[in-house]
Amino acid sequence: MATYFLGDTAVLTGRTLRHVTRSLDTIITTAITPIAMMLLFVYVFGGAIDTGSVSYVNYMLPGILLITIASGISYTTLRLFTDMQGGIFERFHSMPIARSGVLWAHVLTSLVANVISLVVVVLVALVMGFRSGAGVLAWLAVAGILILFTLALTWIAVIPGLTAKSVDGAGAYAYPLIFLPFISSAFVPTDTMPGPVGAFAEHQPVTSIVNTIRDLLTQQPVGDIWTALAWCVGILVAAYVFATISYRRRIS
What we know:
mainly alpha; antibiotic resistance; transmembrane helix; cell membrane; transport; ABC2_TM
């Protein structure tokens, strides 16, 4: 049974990945937009923000990486919504394939596409002056956190993809996720923000994730890693449960 699931999921993932490579606007939005934001913040705003001994490109890169993921997973919702509305799911379910493989194909496509976008953003950051003395284990830890965060947001994206009534509603949910890093420690220290805003920024999930990635890349003591992991795993589990419930209701 597991063999059929893996084989079916692999074939369906290949299908959705081909759709991504054929969609130029997807590639532009998921990679070019975060790069443009990075250029804007480093070369326009960076000189006005005091980040101590850490260069601003090093300071803000973790936040840009999270924005890259948030931008990318919005297309997961749109692809899923399009398949649901186009009757593709019903056609697949009429075939002798694993039903959950159809949903997992979209999740794995999101993961692969976002990893590619993240690599492109890091390469551009290197050209802009980003440097890190972090070792292999630190980079693996960063990769693990980013993958967990991608999976968590992807399963959140699945829910509106299954339940939205219109394409506009399916795509609009991603905007709060994209803007959440702006009210965090991603671009400025939280202690420079007004009281209520600073309190929210200090205790929302993005801040702990950004701080952990930043500390790992700058070889600083990592104080928020367990909080970051708890947020990622908690969001992932909750989103997965709600997404699978929504999926079963739609295909029942």
